[in-house]
Amino acid sequence: MGEHVGTLGISLAFGLSIVAAAYGIGPISSAHLNPAVSFGMMAAGRMSGHDAAIYSIAQVAGATLAAAVILIIASGRADYSLATNGLGQNDYGAGYLGEYSMGAAFLFETVATFRFITVILGVTQNGAPTTLAGLAICLTLAGIHRFLGVFWPVLPTVWA
């Protein structure tokens, strides 16, 4: 499917998934789906260290469960192999698309995460018009993934 949707479609899928989560579970958990968000909130003084740790444990558990679901679904394809196809994750290094170094991958992740958390903190601060916060967060994540797809051409093999 990835080759049919392209990097723009994949980028929008990530962004739209986040906007759905922001509006769907935001009132319950503030839609912290990633430990970086929780630690960003903690660094900004909007969450205690204890709560950030509990959220992070829940986020890792949720990600592990989601990976298991993806594995079960992908395993239903006759030619699927976890060792060959993975679970749609990105990678780096020799032999991988783009052959970027670990340093380049780490720098991209650091800058992209900083930008993403900055937007989240900005649109959710007191006095911000939070009605459209989910949309701003969605577009930021879609933009980050679009940039990643253009300069680091990865189409998850699970979707192929």
Query: What is the tally of helical segments?
Result: 6
- What CATH architecture label applies? Up-down Bundle
Structural class: mainly alpha
Question: In CATH terms, what is the fold-level topology?
Answer: Glycerol uptake facilitator protein
Radius of gyration: 17 Å
Mean pLDDT comes to 82
Structural summary, described in words:
- It is a multi-pass membrane protein.
- Belongs to the MIP/aquaporin (TC 1.A.8) family.
- It is found in: Cell membrane.
- Keywords: Cell membrane, Membrane, Transmembrane, Transmembrane helix, Transport.
- The chain crosses the membrane at residues 12-31, 52-74, 100-123, 135-155.
- The protein has 160 residues and is an all-alpha fold.
- The protein has a single domain, classed as Glycerol uptake facilitator protein (Up-down Bundle).
- 68% of the residues lie in helices and 0% in strands.
- The chain has 6 helices and no strands.
- The longest helix has 28 residues, at 2-29.
- The chain is globular, with a radius of gyration of 17 Å.
- The termini are close together.
Give the SSE layout.
Layout: H1 2-29, H2 35-43, H3 49-74, H4 82-85, H5 102-123, H6 133-151
Helix pairs in contact: 1-6, 2-3, 2-5, 5-6
